[in-house]
Write a structure and sequence with these properties.
This protein is of the alpha/beta class and about 190 residues long. Strands 2-1-5-4-3-6-7-8 form an eight-stranded mixed sheet. Strand 1 and strand 2 form a beta hairpin. The protein is globular and about 40 Å long.
Length: about 190
């Protein structure tokens, strides 16, 4: 029976070592989403355009990658509430990438409607529909979940959390966003990995 604990430990550590491709202090690995992509609101008409992670430079950004599932959306609720309470200016850009490839079969249409509603409510924010799971695979994110990434003006990752944020991590993320907005050059040295 002794091989089982060793097998379990090797599975846990090998998965943790190879399951994530987003590194503090480096740019996000390049992602190009050509099937669907960024949701664009032109007056009241919604359409999609190709999107690349290269567009995530020039200012501090919050990137939220979420599976197209209700449990993953629920994981993001405390973050959304904390952001609303922090009352950030519109200059803080958030980019929400919704992986509809990681949705319960038959539910993608409802996820798309929810994204469209969110875009209409907050037209200055960026919503990306990834119906092929391109970002999840490129960044090696955990399926069926949430990943929160904060990027500075140079496009370098300053904070990353694969999974729901704890209360302490929420406070750290909000503080870092405030720092990055106060110092648009990105010279602040704080970087956090959870």
């Amino acid at each position: 029976m002794k091989p089982y604990p060793l097998l379990l430990a090797s599975l846990l550590f090998s998965g943790a070592a190879s399951a994530f491709n987003v590194e503090i202090g480096k740019p996000l690995p390049l992602v190009f989403i050509s099937n669907e992509g960024e949701l664009v609101l032109n007056q009241q008409d919604l359409s999609y355009q190709r999107w690349s992670s290269q567009s995530l430079t020039g200012q501090a950004r919050l990137v939220i990658h979420v599976a197209g599932r209700l449990p993953a959306k629920a994981q993001s609720a405390p973050l959304i509430a904390a952001l609303q309470q922090a009352n950030f200016p519109r200059s803080l850009q958030s980019t929400t990438i919704v992986n509809t490839d990681d949705a319960i079969p038959g539910s993608a249409i409802f996820v798309e409607r929810s994204i469209a509603s969110s875009k209409r409510d907050t037209p200055w924010q960026h919503f990306i529909l990834d119906n092929s799971g391109v970002a999840q695979r490129a960044w090696q994110l955990t399926p069926q979940g949430l990943t929160v990434i904060i990027i500075d003006a140079q496009g370098l990752v300053r904070f990353v959390r694969d999974g729901a944020l704890t209360s302490a991590e929420l406070k750290q993320a909000i503080a870092l966003l405030r720092q990055l907005l106060a110092d648009p050059t990105g010279q602040t040295q704080t970087a956090l990995r959870s």
